Amino acid sequence: GADVDAQDNWKETPLHLAMYSNRNDVSGFLIEHSADINCKSKDGETPLHRSIEHKNTEATKILITRHACIHSKDNFGDTPLHLACLNNNSKVARLLIDLKANVNEQNNDGTTPLHLAVLNGKYKIVVKLAENGADLSLKYRESNPPLHIACLKHYPGVALLLIDLKADVNEQNNDGATPLHLAVLENEIEIVEKLVENGADLSLLNKDHKTALDLAADQKNRKEISEYLAQKNERERRRSRSSRRRIRRRRMRNYSINYIPLRMEHHNW
């Protein structure tokens, strides 16, 4: 009989090709006749990679049921979970996470499934990844953590979620930019307010030696953000001055309580 695992010049088997055309009758037949479900093509993709790329959820579920390897990496270092997040396939992403796919696996350029979910603004996938231990601090292409990405991509819902999940609001990327710098540049007032409410440092400088308030003042159509940050900045300065005064008073009080009586005793002696 015919070899069900015969490979073409791209090392693709009939099962790989069935995934392209969404021919689930063919893929089912091949699997029933013991086709290798983990065979890799020239680019390192298994039939599971292909079924996810082509959003063939039915075939994906069949492959997983038949114990297709959910941790297999292609030549780019992408796992099936990476591809599910890249292709906005929430059902498959949730299924893979439930099956304990590594949520912090990094591909060849350091991208995690969380980076891809945030890049696509997929709130529910972000929640699922975070609930299962996704690292909020890993940087996308060695620069931007997930919160920075959400600010840059105009996804306030995802950004607010990441802040609530305790992502570092003062993390600086390779340009020295914090999430606050980026939210100001992208005119995302809701994110700006949430960051400030959760401890964003207004004094941090980017590589151009500018604070978020400086950026707001430099940009057109940032009046609302500029006024908000200026108000918060002034309030912070007052609080700082008040705190310094309290510290000075405390020191003077300690001095008068402890040091002056000692001097008097010494003098009397």
UniProtKB/TrEMBL annotation:
- Any GO CC annotation of this UniProt entry: cytosol
Biological process terms from the Gene Ontology for this record are: cellular response to tumor necrosis factor
A molecular function GO annotation: NF-kappaB binding
Highest taxon above the source species: Eukaryota
One Pfam family this sequence matches: Ank_2
Keyword list (alphabetical) reads: ANK repeat, Repeat
Tell me where the ANK repeats sit in this chain.
10-42, 43-75, 76-108, 109-141, 142-174, 175-207
User: Is-annotated flag, keyword Repeat?
Assistant: yes
- PANTHER family linked to this entry: NF-KAPPA-B INHIBITOR ALPHA, NF-KAPPA-B INHIBITOR CACTUS
Write down what this protein is called: Alpha-latrocrustotoxin-Lt1a
This chain's source organism reads Culex pipiens
